[in-house]
Amino acid sequence: DAGVTQSPTHLIKTRGQQVTLRCSPISGHKSVSWYQQVLGQGPQFIFQYYEKEERGRGNFPDRFSARQFPNYSSELNVNALLLGDSALYLCASSSGLYSNQPQHFGDGTRLSIL
Amino acid sequence: AQSVTQPDIHITVSEGASLELRCNYSYGATPYLFWYVQSPGQGLQLLLKYFSGDTLVQGIKGFEAEFKRSQSSFNLRKPSVHWSDAAEYFCAVDRYESGTYKYIFGTGTRLKVLA
To answer: With contact defined as beta carbons under 8 Å apart, do B100 and A55 qualify?
Structure first.
């Protein structure tokens, strides 16, 4: 079975631009979460979506938004990019909302802001 | 505030030697705990998890971890390290907040293995 897939793998943008990152969860998984991992740090929680509804939001500005589609895939959008948005963006899926259902991570999208 | 601390930023061991990576958490209730491994340029792979019950949990790739409530610790161990274990290791706690579960990660420990 395919794992969590993310696209694109790498992306280079300039300050002020907008970016959309995509994620396809493991088949049968209805929950998708997004994390930002800055170099040298652990991942930081951005959003969780379940059944197309936002169920959780981390401490990120409104420039960050996301959505989940009927097939449970998800997009993360970031507007007005700043240099500090350079990071690895990880998508994780799980079968449900509860903590006894571990999250499975994709390989991430490496976003570089020039 | 709930947090996860990994005191060792870097650890170097020789191939075949034993390994212990430390993780301490600050959490009010009995947490759900996880160890993930991240190879360069890749995402995170789940090594093992602790929910309840036996405090010694076995994971993939020969790793194990022990939950010690009295010390608020969840240390990862491996009896004999292989060169392929060189990677970054993250401890995480599952935190429930505002109707959702989210992972709080430590800052990671980078493992280097000497031939």
So the answer is: yes
